[in-house]
Specification:
A hairpin with a 2-residue loop joins strand 6 and strand 7. The chain has 6 helices and 7 strands; from the N terminus they run βαβαβαβααβαββ. With 188 residues, the chain is α/β, with parallel strands linked by helices.
Amino acid sequence: MIVFVSGGARSGKSHVAEQCVLQAANGKPCFYVATASVYDDEMAERVAHHKAERSTSSSVSSWVTLEAPLAIDQAVSQVPDGHAALLDCLTLWGSQVMFHEEDDESEPLSTTEGFSLLVRCLQDARARNITLVIVSNDLNEAPLPNGSETLRYVEFLQMLHRWLATEADSVIEVVAGQPIEWKAVANL
């Protein structure tokens, strides 16, 4: 099953997504595909906060973290068949697809290559009966940026969102910590 959870910044979407994973895991270990690269103190604090929340909220299941700033397909391939995984978050991953350089000589992935990685993740999850919950920020809540690179990024992310919303079995928007199901599955 594929679940897409979106919402504004700091809306509570990660907590809602974690609860979806815990429910789907049914006591089995949960997998956390972390796309964040820790590049400053604020990001380090956010990562620590999310880890602390997972450790206190998961009395039934344990969390296994798979760090994947870019290679999300490789991370999902490490999730055992029939388990549940959280990919958090598509927003950071999309920015790294477009702007991240692994070394001084490498180029960022193309948006086509990035899209192909996401497609492979969903195909792999479906083929191996993995519940994959994907979190992303809804960037349409703010005015569009003026810069061409930033606008190109927003367009790429929104293309991923539209495709993911079509492909997902369940689509949830989180507003002020409250989940709103736009596309629901009976057993979720």
